[in-house]
Amino acid sequence: MPVHLPNHQPLRFGVQQSLRHVLDDPSSSKTMLTEFFVSNSSDESAMRLKLLYKEFPEYFVWEPAKKKWKVRHKQVVVGRLCTVNPFEGERYFERLLLINVCCPTSFQDLLTVNGHTFATFREAAVSRGLLQSDDYIDSCLAEAALFQAPSCLRVLFALLLVYGITTDLQVLWDKYYHPLSEDFSHNGILTDDEVLGKTVVAINVVLNSMDKSLADFPIRFSCKYASDDLIHISSTTL
Predict the structure, then answer these.
(1) Same structural domain, 13 and 54
(2) Distances from the Cα of 153 to the Cαs of 47, 51, 52, 113, 138, in angstroms?
(3) Mean pLDDT across the chain, nearest whole number?
(4) pLDDT tens column, 151-171
(5) Helix %, strand %, coil % of the chain (to 5)
(6) Residues 63, 73: Cα–Cα separation, whole Å
(7) Is residue 237 scored above 60 in pLDDT?
(8) 8 Å CB contact between 108 and 40
(9) Which of 70, 100, 132 is the last residue of a domain?
(10) H/E element, 217
(11) At a CB cut-off of 8 Å and minimum separation 6, what does 227 contact?
């Protein structure tokens, strides 16, 4: 299911179509996401169910020709939002809100928390405490481990470190170490110590780009590379 920022939805049109005609056609800007908002503000069933975006396809079916949702009468469908890289910034935080906020009626509604409308999706997510929720962080990493490459997962892990994990940090590291390091360990050439060393360095490189270091976080590493010196060296060293 698409996740796009306000007025950033993709437009599809034929070679022979006039661009002006496409831009002037209100239906051109309709997407699953914009019509999800519309349904939540106008459809009685949607308003009663108060669904998350990913839950919507379980009860409604998308009609591409009409660009609208209609009530589903048969077939079980599970919705999944498209993956968004943490480095995409606002789009990433918008996705975070969409998987946690029930029945939003607009982009502005997503930005509004307790009557206050924030300027950015990141601020709204922080206000809702989504970046400090251990349950969210665990589920976020679990989903990413299924669909993202280890390099992308390490970026996500670093971002979650920076934005406020305060409890069970060691538990999360121990739980997700295998998918975080899988690309280094899959061929069996490197020793366990070398795999851990490369994984630590790779995560630290991302943290350094945000003026942070693994030395700032209470994670214990159980190998000879797990010294304070390791997290300050260049990724080209190992």
Answers:
(1) yes
(2) 35, 28, 24, 29, 12
(3) 83
(4) 989 988 888 888 755 567 888
(5) 55, 5, 40
(6) 14
(7) no
(8) no
(9) 132
(10) none
(11) none
